[in-house]
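Data deposition worksheet. Section B asks for the primary sequence of the deposited chain exactly as it was used as input, without tags or linkers unless they were present during the calculation. Section C holds the resulting structure in token form. Section D is free text for depositor observations; keep each observation to a single sentence. Incomplete worksheets are returned to the depositor.
Section A, Depositor: J.P.
Section B:
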Amino acid sequence: MAEFIHSVMLDLDKCKGCTNCIKHCPTEAIRVREGSARIIKEICIDCGVCIRVCHNRAKLTITDTLEQLNRYGHTIALPAPSLYAQFEPHVMPDHVLGALLDLGFDEAFEVAVGAEAVSVHLNRYLAEPRPRPMISSACPAVVRLMQVRFPGLLEHIVQVDTPMEVAARMAREKSMREHGFADDEIGVFFITPCPAKVTAVKQPFGDRSCVNGAISMSAIYGELLSRINSPQSAPSSGISPAGGVGWGKTGGENHAIKEHSLLAVDGIHNVINLLEEIERGGLRDIDYIEAQACAGGCIGGPLAPQNPYVSRVRMENLLKKLAQKERERPEFPTDPGYYLLPKPILPRPALKLSQDIDQAIDMLKEVETITADLPGLDCGSCGSPSCRALAEDIVRGYAETSFCVFKLREKLQLLAREIVDLSLMQPPAMGREKANGGEEDDKQ
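Section C:
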């Protein structure tokens, strides 16, 4: 089975084995065994839900650091559009870009520019006859979710690269063209609101990512804030197209596309409900679905420092300001092939009951039998997220029926009755039975 790279990790020292995370994981990728959680790498999609719900802060994201900028001769910051919504209303994108340069980057290139370019291309792409509804490829957590749980719907994903990758490619080509840097001298770093983007950089859907690293917004937020508030920090002029910046919140992608029948859904469990509806043959009247794993879109990412509801208001106010300002219109590559994914997105090998099909069928029947015998409460006390998941774990040899507290109680009750019955039994050789209500007379 392929080796999977993940950005979401577990701190065993902090984990209390509370089972809270297993009840919220959208792919049932977490088990609790021997008092601590275990993440199943094959089906984890790095959505970050477990980070949000873990009260013990035992889940964390491994991201790149600013020290890694020293590896490159020329470094480029790629700020996600959602970064602009993390600051107070008077802070404009130019201030954020200037702070990134003060932080040590040689250049800043806005992902919003890549988003604007992708929006233009998507408008043309959606006009072509393709399976409806088409689904956005922008959220890597949603794409990985579909690879694991909905492989039959992968043909619905638009074969269009993400704004992050398009912006990185444009920034890299610009630096090579204008400054003469070699490709391997340039380090491009995405300022990310979510762990799924980190994983998309480390293990891209294509053969190679144009991004060299991903740095958490939360990790550098304090540094950016102090530089923005410093009188020595000078703004750096950016393009900041309103349509591209709007991609940072739910509905912004559709607003930038404008035409066609469009639908937006956010929150990983809401996305799952929608994908199940598509599997049943629904939503054929919708041309395009903007699907985002985080509630509110990227402004609600686990690595975004601000409250997502506050960020949404700030983003909407910022978009109004940007729409009123006349700015330089960016020039985009016109070749449609520039925006296409390097190769189709394929199903992700998930946990199989067996490589042998006949054995797998027999094991599946056993799973159904065990599931029917379990209480069906999905309480999580066994350390598995549901009764069916426990049944699958039992068949694979990773668990036992006694892990279920209800089945264990039944066994204990049966054992207790057997003990009582045994205590009332007396072997004949140990005494004489009473007859007619009295003891037999002793023989003379």
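Section D:
The first strand starts at residue 8 and ends at 10.
The chain has 14 helices and eleven strands.
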